[in-house]
């Protein structure tokens, strides 16, 4: 609360934001992870400043369950070529996955999220990168490099971040230009030529102009053999490669004026990772441990993913006097190309088929080994504008008021093809299946009010009005199976929604280092349309009421940070997605009501100057309450415990099921350093646990799609004097854990197995970093 700590300025807040983050392990897949800031004169933890409410605040004063990662933790996470999905093990109650390799990440918070993989799918967890909402799942693939901080906000964030943030939001800020020379070069190299480069340099160009330029590259060589009969090849698949760059120019012509120009480019030119593998799950059973370095695929290109995008953003801040500031953020982002094609059945018609006791198949329905499918985004742009006025008064009252505009145009060509068949060397290349066009427009007005009732207690109130329209068009190519299933093609869908959302919270400070809070918040997700090989399905807007209480504290003279939050929420018209089954399609529909309750606990302990112990635990118990909605019983769900729908025995009831996220997640890490010579030798290990989840279909748990797992990493290293050089050796997945980070509800072999993607085996590498 401001009564105890004051309100740091914008620049100082960003600098302070590089302090130690909340207790959580550093990524399940990052190499030299969890290099904590176990340095300094004592063992007191550093202050954390966040901008979760669009103004810099001490994290203790923010009445939201929020976790923060600083620049060092994010850099550690991304080293070794990892992607944004590595965040999943950083933060309790947060899960990230993708069925498209390094493309199109999907986020789940407190159990809520959806598994839609179409290019026009929207998610209930908002992503804000450098103060700009990234709506499309493809543009969310922009890598994390030269990052200042990452914040995860749990629960609805409708007031300040608008629609499509019913479950939460992830806020990412890249490093800002400085008026002094600074930079870094971070390089890692490991197995299969896995490499990454994160480099940046910035400083003063003139008395009024500062700049920062940063560069990123990640790649890996092919390492998986294809053993399909007639198509045998060693090291045939598994590679990826991408580059990205960013330029920031900050002009300060006057003390109260700043203009920040931010331009970026990203090209993922190769991604054959995240391979679909048939037979990974025995239906109703656990994962089948097929060798990770072998596949049997007969697709022409097996997997072909690429994306190219650029953006420009102009942020203007102008002091208006009397403690008022005006901020304008204008951004344009465009996909220059996005191709995502894969052999999604994960098998070969020629054989062999893993596991060994499953024979070669002929490719009939439910035994389909002949499918190639994908999306080509041929046109896309996103235009956003946000303008707001905020106060920074010394008195008890402060406010923020603003407006927001969003427009997105998207054109997607869906393609389908067949793979090699009957031991022939001739295949059909992916051919046009459908064309979708979607135009989305949105505008909103919002306000947030702060009032200090006393020196120990403050109230916060927010309100937002949103108006959204969407126009969707789909045309299926005549003569295709999709056209047969949707005979009235083309289809036109128009939706128009509006909503009033808000939040009310109270924060009370028992001591300068212990606050308690209570918060009530509402959220809203606009109507959604999905059309993949079927008549378009439309879901009405979903809405959420979230109730939350928590305590945030620093104990033992700053040696221990202890944060605990508890929540309960209710969804009306929750938007659920039915994926796959016996065909590669998607359907979206509304669940009447869904509820969730649980807690998040984060602790960080500094028992000695060079020792850090972190622990994070989250529990989310979700339940579907809908006695009328039923879904297809494809794949034998009735035979494996599903309850037949009274009105249609061929369907399964969803009542009593769970939302797609796991019930339990946990993180833990240890860092221990020892002075050696003029520097510090260190050892660190981190572990992440994800409990069982049922992410593919919203029915009661009749499958083991997503079994629980516990994964650990470790590294040893040496940090030279003044932190200018750091060298470390890392091992990821110490126990060589075999698990499925993503599964596809695609049945094969007479509905007895399911397709999935599997984790990398144990890997190792070397990392070097130079700071200047």
Which ranges are low-confidence, i.e. pLDDT below 50, for 5 or more consecutive residues?
1-42, 355-368, 420-428
Number of helices: 5
Shape: globular
Helical content class: under 10%
The number of distinct β-strands equals: 42
Give a quick account of the main beta sheet: strands, pairing sense, barrel closure.
22 strands, antiparallel, barrel
Q: Span between N and C termini? A: 35 Å
Rg, rounded, reads: 25 Å
The share of residues in extended strands comes to over 45%
Mean pLDDT: 82
Q: Helix/strand/pairing class, anyone?
A: mainly beta
Describe, in plain words, how this protein is organized in 3D.
The chain is mainly beta and 772 residues long. 4% of the residues lie in helices and 56% in strands. It contains five helices and 42 strands. It has a 22-stranded antiparallel barrel. β25 and β26 form a beta hairpin. The longest helix is centred in the first third of the chain and has 8 residues. The chain is globular, with a radius of gyration of 25 Å. 53% of the residues are buried.
What is the compact description of this entry?
This protein has 772 residues and is mostly beta strands.
Key attributes of the depicted protein:
single chain, 772 residues, mainly beta, 22-stranded antiparallel beta barrel, 5-stranded mixed sheet, 4% helix
